Amino acid sequence: MINMNDYPEIKPGISRIKRIYASIMLLVVGRGIQAAAAVDRDAKKEFANLRDDFMLQLSIAPNGPYMFVGKNEKGKVKYMGWNPKGKKSTLEMRLKSMEAATLLLTFQEKTAIASCNDRLLVQGNLQDACAVLRLFDIVEMYLLPKFITKFAVKRYPHWSQVSPVRKHLGRILIYLRLITG
Amino acid sequence: MQLPDYYEFFSRSKINSGKKAMEHLPFELNDLNAKKPLVITCVNSAREGLPEKLVKAFYDSDIVIGAIFDKVGRDASVGLVNDLAELYAYRGCDSIIALSGGAVMNIAKGVNIAVSLKDDVLKFSEEGAINTPLKPLVALPTKYSTGLETSNKAIIDNHLFSSDFLFPDLVVIDSRLTRPGNAETAVEGAMIALTHCIEANTDEFSSPVNDSYAYGAIQFINENLYRVVKKPSHKEGSIALANAATMASIVFSNSPAGIVHLLSEELSRITGVSLGKCMGILLPYALEYKRHKKQRIRPELLLALAGFDGYSETPEQDRANKAVNKIRGMQQNLKDFVPGSLKEINVPLYKLEQVAAAVVEKSSGRANLKECMTLLETALEGQILV
Hints:
The complex is a heterodimer. Chain A is α+β, with helices and mostly antiparallel strands. Chain A has 7 helices and 5 strands, in the order ααββββααβααα.
């Protein structure tokens, strides 16, 4: 006969630092996508191919944080905030756990590898999801120095694909738009 | 690859293996409609801090752990199964997580039977007695393996339970649980896995799907066992061996128990020597006996043991022979952990007769008394048959 009280219920805690870091990174990525869509021609092309009511929800299971970015009524790409209330997304990409998010957002795993390792759950059009992964690569190239971006993207673009002038000018404009909105 | 006229293969387990695999658990439990697991583990795992690692994997999820029972010993008993079934019900749990192998997994399967079918566990030890789905069961293998963890079988108080509903729903293999190991447990687990795979493969009705699992497991063992023996904390090696054990259990579930398994089980029970050691001793003798009797040993076995180069440079008619020699070579290389004969573990002859008789009875006539005794006697003397 075992004593039930010797084996209590356990409510696992939360990792506050990871949660705060993930929230900040999702905010930066969301505003980064908004800025890149206004500045970079490849990002503009990707968004042009997406539907008019496109709305991406990037979140961490089970209870967030969330990031929404999509096209508004005027067709402009906007960061729509972190609150899921009242928002209807056409593409949901969910990271299965805070640990999966940490691996991705600290660049321990490339986005493509994270998808291969089944860390991401996608609900929606698969072509749109692939476009979003390419957009993440574009944003990371602009926001991060090369030695970090190499860990995040599938393949760092050659200078013949993105000239240093375009890259550095784009970086300045995106950072400005990140701060000013 | 052989294709029988008809075959069946079944495995219901999803396998998650690799970096941070444990952290996928809350998501996977959610998929199984489970929110409150009962965790069962053993004294050794508790001493190594594995339950704490498991709890951390549930951070930031909405899973509540009903209880962590960390006092399972070496053997699985019906009494403990009933006690844990009560704990399960008391806490309102809806799933079971077995953290470790051996008795822990047997107990977890027993608890699952008790809480799902709400009756005395022993009533379900007959073939076909369990015919409805059970509660979600998750297996987290560690370095302790007895070959039944991810199979459709369980042994509780010497009663064998067998049903496809006993397969765990999910198997999570994470290197944080499989290491640091020690060389002896690694070798014993590998010998059990190797025996199950080779015996399934040498069965004349073996299916191609079962063969694929078997060859994969044999290759993992061949490539990683020596690495782990040399360095028990080897990350890739330990996870490869855990994968091999998982695959071997599935192979074992889809083939009849071979002569080495039956003899080793009985020998282990009667002498107290570990199952892995007994299998490690008997396996080369069994293969040499088959070769001596000119019974078919499939040449593809060499492909898993020697790789493409070793396989292609060997003439076709010599491949089976070379495979058998490789197994003998493996046993000799591991002589610090696997004795070369039964004499080295001081097994008297009269006990061998008991073993053979018990096996013949258990196998319902599939095993032949003369063959069993011949095999045991050659293993006793350390006589290598050519």
